[in-house]
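Hey team,

Filing this mostly as a record. A colleague (T.K.) asked me to run one chain through the structure pipeline before their review meeting, and I want the input and output archived in the tracker in case anyone asks later how it was produced. No errors, nothing strange. Just documentation.

Input sequence:
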Amino acid sequence: MDGSAVVAGAGIAGLVAARVLSQRYPSVTVLDRDTLPDGATPRRGVPQSAQPHLLLISGMRALEELFPGLLDELTDKGAVRFDPGLGLCVYRYGSRWPRAETGLDLVSVSRPLLEATIRDRVAKQPGVTIRDGVAVIALSGAAGKVTGAFLDNGDHLEAGLVVDCTGRGSRSDRWLAALGFPAPEQVEVKIGVTYTTRIFRRAPGELEGWQAALVLPTPPEENRHGLALAIEDDRWLVTVGGWHVDKPPTDIASFNEYAQSLPDPIVADLIAHAEPLSEPQLHRYPSSRRRRFETLERIPAGYVALGDAFCSFNPIYGQGMTCATLQAGALAEALDRHSAATVEMARDYFTAAAETLATPWQFAVGGDFAFPQTTGPKPRGIGVTNWYVRRMSIASKKDADVNRTFVSVQQLLTPPSVLFKPAFVARVLRLSRRRA
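Output structure:
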């Protein structure tokens, strides 16, 4: 493809976008308002970077295709790999899932290490330039096409394609309006999620031999959750939080008390004995937000949005980085199909990107609406869906095959249609008649 491309934002979404563009444009410039760190440290422009991030297996596989050898490189740097059925202790609906092999491979790594490793890979791509300390403030355009980006330092960059990866605070509405295009409809579901994180030193034999633990509430009676992840440098990343929490923990005492209030003691027992390495850090996530670019009747050529600028989820479900990576794949396919950043290319991309969001959005918003305080547009049939998901959860504790199928769908490896095949539904209903 002729010309150059500009990527606004150097987070995970911007980096995977830059990778696919580097294979199709001779020049790619990635811009970020932050001063990017040299190593794996949290940064201001990613306010949740110190919090836990879990990449779904489908996302890790997609990243491995973009960056061959990435999983081994992360493992060499201390990332922890495990079968989710054998290494992840999950508690919900009154009991834990039993250990049961799934044959899948999950990786646990801190967001700063993952981002730094990918950024180093992208920076080495021919034609790619990463510039920090500068931000896009507006788009330039003419005759229905975006032609570049204006920067806050007064510069203007010409580009055949601008990819907006600036996150949920994206100013796409303003940018498009300035060029005479309508803003996309926004769907917002208010979830009132908060979570507080501390880091602890990790020693052998802790967490009852698991590599991670997830304690989820049984709605609507409970609304608190806890998570412990083994990460690089022999550390635990431990988070407690929940939905619509009035007083989230902000200090050590309240953090410990909150962990002790969870319905399973595994997280509280861990932090009672592990050596703390950090103070509590609180993060608030008021709502999930989706911009419906795919429904716009008029869109410019030369502009697309990707990652949280398109859709940002409740982070408790760990879907954001995976969806951004899958959207980058959709962008690559659309560019290859049209051989240029035309209106038709943008429309095809937005349609395909929206399809990658359908299942994650249904899972996330469906789970959020299990709490009566959640407000916003409800997906059709959400009550029946939540009832069935609960039945599947109960059945999967009793049947390893049901569990493998359920986990595969949750990891976006298998289409959700398999969950509604008559034989599978009958099996779920039979197994879930009695609680595990």
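Quick notes for T.K.: The chain has 13 helices and 18 strands. The longest helix spans residues 343-368.
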